[in-house]
Amino acid sequence: MITALQLKTLTTFTAPALTRSIQLAGYKKDSFLTAEFVGMTNASQFAYNVSYKDPVFKEPQMTKVFVNFDPIEGKVSVDY
């Protein structure tokens, strides 16, 4: 079961929090400018739209990241 507090936390990650999490996942140079929770996937992942600075383009680019939560271990992981 996911508690109300856990649900609140999992739906309110900030850009710095997602940056730290994606870097811990192995994407050492990735960082996000903005983050917006957009919903849950059919696989029970928490989906976020994030923006990032692309070295090729002058304007920020958008992508999605997915937050996975293991309620048994209490662990959170983030991936593309």
Description:
A hairpin with a 4-residue loop joins strand 3 and strand 4. Strands 1-2-3-4 form a 4-stranded antiparallel beta sheet, with helices on one face. It is built from 2 helices and 4 strands, in the order H-H-E-E-E-E. The protein has 80 residues and is an alpha+beta fold.
Q: Give average pLDDT, whole number.
A: 96
**Can you tell me the residue ranges where pLDDT is under 50 for at least 5 consecutive residues?**
none
Please state the overall shape, judged from the principal axes of the Cα atoms.
elongated
- Specify Rg, calculated over alpha carbons: 13 Å
Q: In percent, how helical is the residue content?
A: 10-25%
Report the order of strands and helices: HHEEEE
Distance between the termini: 24 Å
Share of residues in strands = 35-45%
Q: Give the biggest sheet.
A: 4 strands, antiparallel
Write the layout of secondary structure elements.
Elements: H1 4-10, H2 15-24, E1 34-40, E2 46-52, E3 61-70, E4 75-79
Antiparallel strand pairs: 1-2, 2-3, 3-4
Quickly describe the structure:
Helix content is 21%, strand content 36%. The chain has helices spanning 4-10, 15-24, and strands at 34-40, 46-52, 61-70, 75-79.
